[in-house]
Amino acid sequence: MSRSPDTPSGRATDADTGALLDLERFLPYQLSVLSNVVSQDIAQAYGERFGLAVTEWRIIAVLGRFPGLSAVGVAERSAMDKVAVSRAVASLLERGLLHRETHGEDRRRSVLELSEAGRAVHAEVAPLALAYERELLSPLDEDERAQFSRMLDKLGERYGL
To answer: N or C terminus: fewer CB in 10 A for the chain?
Structure first.
């Protein structure tokens, strides 16, 4: 899709169709903004209490569900930047929330697991995250929540999620 210069209204047009890009209705923009707002909001709850950044909590959450992944595996499963994951893993290792072990057959590959302290943090933060999710979805009725979940799954399938 080629784009013409921004219009005086600040909205870009698609040169092929002449359609205006209404940023506030553009799904990728809406998803990004909502994701950022939700992540920052929920991060306050565990950030203040546990000193965790968003990336650190995501790593703890992923390893709480899928123990024994490599840092690359965590990045792939969560669609996070590998460099950000690497930095957060280093921080969590330093704080004693993770253990790193060399994989049995392949000495070059290491796997990550939550330490006892990491499991304790996960056990405390997970209920906070679930309560936040309930509050976030509270404007939707049960049928809308189910439909929304199906739609997210369907969109995620396109990207192998």
So the answer is: N
In sequence order, what are the residues at sequence separation of 6 or more whose Cβ sits closer than 8 angstroms to the Cβ of residue 2?
A: 14, 15, 16
Burial classification of residue 8, based on how many CB atoms lie within 10 Å of its CB (0-12 exposed, 13-18 middle, 19 or more buried): exposed
Going by C-alpha positions, the residue among 145, 121, 136 that lies closest to residue 38 is 136
Handedness of CA 44, 45, 49, 52 (dihedral sign): negative
C-alpha dist (Å) from residue 142 to 111, 145, 146: 39, 5, 6
Domains and CATH numbers, the chain: 23-136 (1.10.10.10)
pTM (2 d.p.): 0.79
The helices-and-strands tally (H runs, E runs) of the chain is: 6, 2
**d(Cα 85, Cα 58) in Å, to the nearest integer?**
9
DSSP one-letter code for 105:
S
pLDDT over 60 at 2, yes or no = no
- Would you place residue 1 in the very low, low, confident or very high pLDDT band (cuts 50, 70, 90)? very low
> What helix, strand, coil percent values describe the chain, rounded to 5?
60, 10, 30
Report the distance separating Cα 60 and Cα 71, nearest Å: 12
- With 80 as the cut, is the pLDDT of residue 106 above it? no
